[in-house]
Every structure is written in C-alpha cells, then in structure tokens.
Amino acid sequence: MAKTPRILILNGPNLNLLGEREPAVYGRDRLSDIEKACARRAKSLGLAIDFRQSNHEGELIDWVQAARKSHAAIVINPAGYSHSSVSLMDALIAFERPVIEVHLSNIFRREPFRHHSYVSRVALGVISGLGKQGYLAALDALAGILKTEVEA
Ligand code: DQA
Predict the structure, then answer these.
(1) What is the pLDDT of residues 57-80, one digit of tens each?
(2) CA of 12 relative to ligand 1 center, distance in Å
(3) Residue ranges of domains in the chain, CATH in brackets
(4) Looking at 71, 81, 83, 103, which residue is catalytic?
(5) Model pLDDT for residues 21-59, shown as the tens digit of each residue
C-alpha cells in the first residue's frame, strides 16, 4: 500500500491568539479548533498532518528546511511574515515541493501593506479570506495534486 503523504501545516506569529485576537477580522475559532478540523479532514483524505505554530521566524525556517526530508507538501499561514520575510520565502523555494499559502482574512480587502506577500511568489496557490475553510480547501487541493503526482 502507498505511504500516507505527510503535510506540514505551519502558522506564523500571533496566530496562537486566534479566538481572542481581533475576532471581527479573524473569527472566533481558536487555532486548536482549526487543528482539529484539519486532522479530521486529512484523515478523510488519506493524508497525515503535522500542525505547528511559532512566533519566531528562525523556527519556522528550521521547520521548512527539515520538511525537505519528511513532508510531501506545506500549507502555511505565514501571518505577518508574509509581508516581510525574504528568508522564509527562500526556505520555501528550497523545499521544492507544493506550498499552499492560506490567510484567514482577505488580505486584499485590508491595508495596502498586506497586499504583497513574499510567500505568494513561491506558493502553488493562495487562499485568502475563507477563515478556517481555507485550511480545509488547501488540504482538499493537495489530496488531488499529490494523487496526480503519484499517477504521473
Ligand atoms: C493573516 C493576515 C496577515 O496580514 C496578518 O499579519 C496575520 C494573519 C491572516 O490569516 O489573515 O497575522 O495571515
């Protein structure tokens, strides 16, 4: 039987405060609610997930580097680092496998400085504005993409 593909789901700074932080923008779901929903969806799709959050750029980069040996794809909400981190972008380029960028809010309806994301240059796709559903949509897409890769 084929090995279950592992997906690394990364969350950047301040996302540990979800549910308390600006609920009008980010909703009432906590990060743990999103993790549970992702785990359920991944199971139903035949995927395994590792779900992590860090407030530290270097830690996110270390995780992306390590994933080169262990994960088939990355789903990442880089949070504020989307708009500032060339180093995170470089690590994602070196990953050389599918990356999907997710934002809870629609960054294009917000302040102009949020309209640019370094990570988008690397991402296969970007989902912005769908809240928790965006993470689930990313997993749905990856299940199809990884299956296509196996069949190719
Ligand atoms: C965010 C959008 C970013 O601009 C912001 O810095 C975040 C969260 C989102 O999920 O909507 O922290 O990535």
Answers:
(1) 999 999 999 999 999 999 999 999
(2) 9
(3) 6-78+90-151 (3.40.50.9100)
(4) 103
(5) 999 999 999 999 999 999 999 999 999 999 999 999 999
